[in-house]
Every structure is written in structure tokens, then in C-alpha cells.
Amino acid sequence: MLPPELRTATEALAEVDHLLVALDFDGTLAPFVGRPEDARALPGSAEALARLGGGDAPGSGPRTTTALLSGRHLESLRLVASPPEEVLLVGSHGAERYSPETGDEPLTLSGAQEALLAEVTAALRGVSEAFAGARLEHKPSGVVLHVRQCSPADGEAALARARTALAGERDVHVTEGKAVLEAAVVRVDKGVGLDWLRSVSGAGTVVFAGDDVTDEHAFSTLRPGDLGVKVGDGETSAAFRVGSLEDVTEFLNLLASVRTL
Ligand SMILES: [Mg+2]
């Protein structure tokens, strides 16, 4: 069930000329699963997103631009989300970008950043090898320690050891999410990613939905008239909140119907 105020605010978006709908993937469109590569969007959410992005009349400018804004490596995001070509993509929290016009904008690291990445990878490999169930994910921008498959006590201990291991690294940007710690050698966050999506799409109004602490950077860039939806519990600066991924499906269906009237 959507909160009535969210329903009203969504219906008001019918009037907007060009709307950007940017969505987090894991925990927003797709339920969390043990192996990140097995995550898939709820079918209803994927269909609503396709309807939102595919509704433009031929020859007219875009009325609704759709985008995915994820912490995942772009390649991994494509694998799990199978996005249609028109969907803008931001991966690695903003470090990797794709638009149909520009194609992929991959990340290139300086020599110093490459050396730092090797150092950080070695440090976190030591942590992951010490705890059963912990695993590393490698991205162009950094390395991620996943502890979702550890026991709760091991997960906490692994994250604590990782924090300690990285404490002295001045140029490493540590971001923590749900059962995950990311050490990046470039400074990006989802606010940077959403700003890029806003500018490349040319949309005047933005919708963003996300479930994690890393999504707060994106919520904080929203302007009057934009609409932010936090999924699940936790502090947020988003104006609206829904309780579940099924609610996200309902929200996207409502948005798709008001935008394609
Ligand atoms: Mg998420």
C-alpha cells in the first residue's frame, strides 16, 4: 500500500514536461540474494520501468527518461538488470556511466590510483580470507568486502577489521552499506551520479528511489519539485517512504500510468 501523500505527489508528476526516473537496483528493484550475480528485478518493477521509458511518441522529445543508479560495477549491473538500450546507467556509485548518445564512459585510473588500488585490495583480501563467507568484489574504482553470507558476529568482526586496516589510507574513500564495505580510490558518490543523470538527460524534474545509506547522497541532491522515495527502514532525507519492494512496483506502475496517459 502506498502512503496517500506519495500517491498524490506521484499523480502530480503527470504534468511535468520531461521527467527523469532514476532507481537504485539492489534492495529497491531486486530483492537481496546470497550471490549478487543472482539478483533480478521483481518482474512487475521491470515491466513498469520499461513502460515508463518506452512511452515516447516517435519524433517528439523524451517525456520520461529512465535510469539505473547503482553501486555495482557497470558490467555486473547490466548482467543482472538486462536494461533496454534507452536506459541511462551509472555504476560504481557514479564512477562509470552510460548513455545511448555517448556510449560507455569507463573509468581510467592514474598510476598512483592503480598502486593504491592494489594495496587496498591486498588489505581487504587478508580480511576476507580470515572470515568464512566473506568475499571480495572487484570494481574499476575500488574493492568491496561483502559479509552477507557470514554469521552476524563474523560479519561485524570482518567489517571492524576492514575499517582498522583502511584507517591510515588517506586517499581511500570508504563507504559502508548493508553488510558491505567499499574502498574506492576515486571520490564519487550517488549524488555525483544523479547530478550527471540530471544533466545528461536534460530533465527538469527527477524521481529517485533507493534503500541504502549510500542512496542518501542522491536524495540530498534532490530539488523542490523532485520526488525521493526511501525503501524500508533507516534514517533518510527522502520526502517519502515505502515499506517493501512490492510497494516500489506499485509506485512505478502508478507513475507509468500517469506518465503515459
Ligand atoms: Mg540498494
Automatic annotation (TrEMBL):
Pathway info: Glycan biosynthesis; trehalose biosynthesis
Substrates-to-products reaction catalysed: alpha,alpha-trehalose 6-phosphate + H2O = alpha,alpha-trehalose + phosphate
Record-listed E.C. numbers: 3.1.3.12
Enzyme class, spelled out: hydrolase
Pfam families for the chain: Trehalose_PPase
Cofactor: Mg(2+)
Gene Ontology molecular-function annotations: metal ion binding; trehalose-phosphatase activity
GO biological process: trehalose biosynthetic process
InterPro entries listed in its UniProt record: HAD-like_sf (IPR036412), HAD_sf (IPR023214), OTSB-like (IPR044651), Trehalose_PPase (IPR003337)
Keyword annotations of the record: Hydrolase, Magnesium, Metal-binding
Function: Removes the phosphate from trehalose 6-phosphate to produce free trehalose.
NCBIfam families (alphabetical): T6PP (TIGR00685)
Family: Belongs to the trehalose phosphatase family.
This protein's name: Trehalose 6-phosphate phosphatase
Native species: Zhihengliuella halotolerans
